[in-house]
User: Which sequence fits this backbone?
């Protein structure tokens, strides 16, 4: 009998411990009831800076006394910045769980050692002894615009169909995947949905994994919505307050947001780093309103996961198989070039490439994709010497190279757009999201593993984007045929077939 | 397997006879990042380690003139020259507060100290330049103290810093006109090596050196990571 009691006591104690641990985990700090309302605050514009965000104390630009006052009122709610569950640790802001990205700092204030997150340190250090603050006070009421959209263009039938579906998804606060081929005018399709959301006084975010895409989108969206506050946020943007009603941001910037947006539009979901980084997906998910939100995913080249979801009918989707000007997609031509990389490193232009350059259509510019940074600098000098010798370009300024670490990358891209540069050599940074009206696209060594199916399809989609010149050329120079190349051509042919079919049915 | 603290690439340590039996000290920067750091060369000013063709650079001549040949600082030795890469590393380390970054300099900082200061007759006191309380509140660690910790366990805290305006936000003229921010706690009889992260004009280090000399310290040296 005694023994049994003893076992019972141990069991109870263990069970309690276990339950306690479980409760601690399930009790999310976000589920606390909101603070008592103070309606006079809801019109104050400074709330915009703090609402819907998870911020460090140093990011809250208030004097200590005022800050203390609001923390006492529970308007600023402190949550622990690094979560510890049993054996794992997680950064509250960036969802990082990788222990290699945590480090220990001996804090001189507390005389103790604390963990801090190195994954998101560029946005300000998340240290264990400093909590993150979220705004739990009265919510800011966003204005309802009557006629926000000043865009005058018109949509094709295929675009209209997709635009209606997007508007419906935004209204009903659902998820939707928009699968639209490259150059189909995805941005314009969004406008009616955004207009509707602005009329209802909702807050909108357009997120993209690429900063170049953000830079290109901001002026276009601002031109379409002249009276609405639009902000572009990326690592090097000047204005970082993020107070606009319509925000265009890189997905990394969403680490700061929590329960902020009614409508979340994520562009290029198949792009690096978004598709490979779980923390970005979680952050994007958290940036939307916790209960009622519409999420629109945009892509031209869905990955296998999304294809499976579409097939499975777990993700509603709409499909736009045609470009806005109605011409079919350009099908890449293949040119086998044995020992391609070797020839370039020996200061030779591969014969097939030199042949093409000598017979190229002179009115188009050339965009040349190169897989690696080291190969880029070699081939730049090789091609520069060759093109100058053959008088294809007249001065050395007409050829340029860009890569991710290039400080003057925006200026070069802008010069290429103004047609001051004829030949632009680039790494994969220009594979998506950028539009040049009349170009031929070459890929050097398309058998390199960085060129996967999505990348090659996107690269092929850079050609023939304008209605005045829908027939650019796309050439893959390769050493060995790869699965990615085969699947690229297959998928482009399939898109063109579907487009033809719809044309015959008269649905476009 | 370790990753580079700067570029997060994996570090592949080459196997050779040196590290077959005795494990090498852990490497924090990968080889390509380490090559971007530029060590101070041979053609440098004897007093402040600045790259200069003359024996003493123009800056040091001005200091000599100002102190009437009684410069409180005997010598400054720096490990690295200032360049864009080290600027970015220091920005991340100091201003973003990435403590781990500092370990990138650990082994080379220690080595250079031993080669330069081993000939001293008595072992010197290692004194890091302190931060103001306000700055500590913000940064949570002192980078100079971290560097001093690489050299010895017995760090001497001789100073208190009163005001905490950022030197890096000022120009040369404002820096040179700034008042002495330090208060010395005690008298000092040993030679002292002041440790700081960066020597730009030498104003801060000379403020500290002045006080030490007045308190009876025979020689004051400075050992800094970077010559700005």
Assistant:
């Amino acid at each position: 009998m005694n023994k049994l009691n003893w076992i019972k006591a141990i069991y109870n104690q263990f069970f309690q411990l276990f339950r306690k641990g479980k409760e601690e985990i399930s009790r999310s700090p976000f589920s606390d009831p909101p603070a008592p309302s103070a309606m006079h605050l809801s019109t104050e514009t400074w709330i915009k800076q703090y609402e819907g965000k998870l911020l460090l104390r140093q990011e809250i630009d208030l004097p200590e006394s005022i800050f203390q006052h609001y923390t006492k009122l529970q308007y600023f709610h402190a949550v622990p910045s690094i979560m510890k569950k049993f054996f794992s640790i997680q950064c509250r802001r960036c969802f990082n769980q990788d222990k290699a990205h945590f480090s220990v700092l001996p804090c001189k204030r507390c005389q103790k050692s604390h963990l801090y997150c190195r994954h998101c340190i560029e946005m300000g250090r998340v240290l264990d002894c400093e909590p993150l603050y979220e705004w739990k006070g009265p919510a800011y009421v966003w204005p309802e615009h009557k006629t926000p959209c000043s865009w005058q263009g018109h949509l094709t039938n295929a675009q209209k169909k997709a635009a209606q579906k997007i508007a419906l998804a935004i209204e009903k606060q659902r998820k939707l995947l928009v699968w639209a081929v490259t150059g189909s005018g995805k941005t314009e399709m969004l406008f009616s949905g955004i207009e509707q959301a602005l009329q209802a006084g909702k807050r909108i975010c357009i997120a993209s994994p690429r900063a170049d895409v953000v830079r290109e989108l901001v002026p276009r969206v601002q031109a379409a919505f002249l009276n609405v506050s639009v902000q572009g946020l990326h690592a090097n943007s000047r204005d970082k307050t993020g107070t606009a009603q319509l925000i265009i941001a890189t997905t990394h910037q969403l680490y700061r947001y929590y329960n902020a947006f009614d409508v979340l539009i994520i562009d290029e979901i198949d792009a690096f780093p978004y598709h490979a980084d779980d923390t970005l997906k979680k952050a994007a998910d958290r940036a939307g309103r916790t209960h009622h939100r519409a999420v629109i995913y945009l892509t031209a080249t869905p990955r296998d996961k999304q294809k499976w979801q579409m097939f499975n009918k777990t993700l509603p989707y709409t499909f736009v198989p045609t470009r806005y000007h109605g011409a079919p997609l350009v099908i890449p031509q293949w040119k086998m070039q044995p020992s391609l990389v070797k020839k370039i490193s020996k200061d030779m232009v591969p014969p097939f490439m030199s042949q093409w350059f000598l017979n190229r259509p002179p009115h188009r510019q050339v965009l040349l994709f190169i897989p690696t940074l080291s190969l880029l600098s070699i081939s730049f000098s090789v091609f520069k010497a060759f093109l100058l010798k053959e008088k294809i370009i007249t001065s050395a300024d007409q050829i340029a190279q860009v890569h991710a670490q290039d400080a003057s990358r925006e200026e070069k891209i802008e010069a290429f757009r103004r047609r001051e540069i004829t030949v632009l050599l680039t790494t994969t940074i220009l594979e998506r999201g950028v539009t040049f009206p009349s170009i031929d696209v070459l890929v050097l060594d398309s058998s390199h593993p960085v060129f996967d199916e999505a990348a090659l399809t996107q690269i092929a989609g850079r050609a023939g984007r304008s209605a005045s010149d829908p027939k650019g050329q796309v050439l893959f120079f390769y050493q060995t045929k790869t699965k990615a190349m085969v699947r690229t051509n297959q998928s482009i042919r399939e898109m063109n077939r579907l487009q033809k079919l719809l044309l015959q049915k008269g649905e476009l | 397997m370790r990753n580079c603290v700067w570029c997060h690439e994996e570090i592949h340590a080459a196997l050779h006879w040196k590290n077959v039996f005795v494990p090498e000290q852990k490497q924090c920067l990968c080889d390509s990042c380490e090559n971007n750091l530029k060590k101070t060369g041979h053609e440098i000013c004897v007093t402040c380690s600045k790259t200069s063709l003359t024996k003493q650079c123009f800056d040091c001549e001005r200091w000599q003139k100002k102190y009437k040949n009684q410069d409180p600082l005997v010598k400054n030795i720096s490990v690295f020259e200032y360049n864009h890469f080290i600027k970015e590393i220091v920005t991340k380390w100091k201003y973003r507060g990435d403590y781990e970054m500092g370990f990138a300099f650990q082994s080379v900082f220690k080595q250079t100290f031993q080669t330069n200061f081993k000939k001293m007759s008595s072992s010197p006191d290692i004194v890091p330049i302190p931060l103001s309380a306000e700055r500590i509140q913000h940064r949570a660690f002192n980078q100079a103290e971290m560097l001093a910790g690489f050299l010895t366990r017995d760090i001497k805290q001789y100073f208190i810093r009163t005001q905490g305006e950022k030197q890096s936000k000022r120009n040369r003229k404002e820096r040179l006109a700034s008042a002495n921010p330090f208060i010395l706690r005690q008298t000092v009889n040993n030679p002292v090596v002041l440790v700081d992260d960066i020597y730009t004009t030498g104003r801060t280090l000379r403020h500290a050196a002045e006080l030490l000399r007045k308190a009876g310290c025979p020689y004051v040296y400075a050992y800094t990571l970077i010559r700005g």
In short: DSSP finds nine helices and six strands in chain B. The interface with chain A takes residues 3, 92, 96-100, 136-138, 140-142 of chain B (CB under 8 Å).
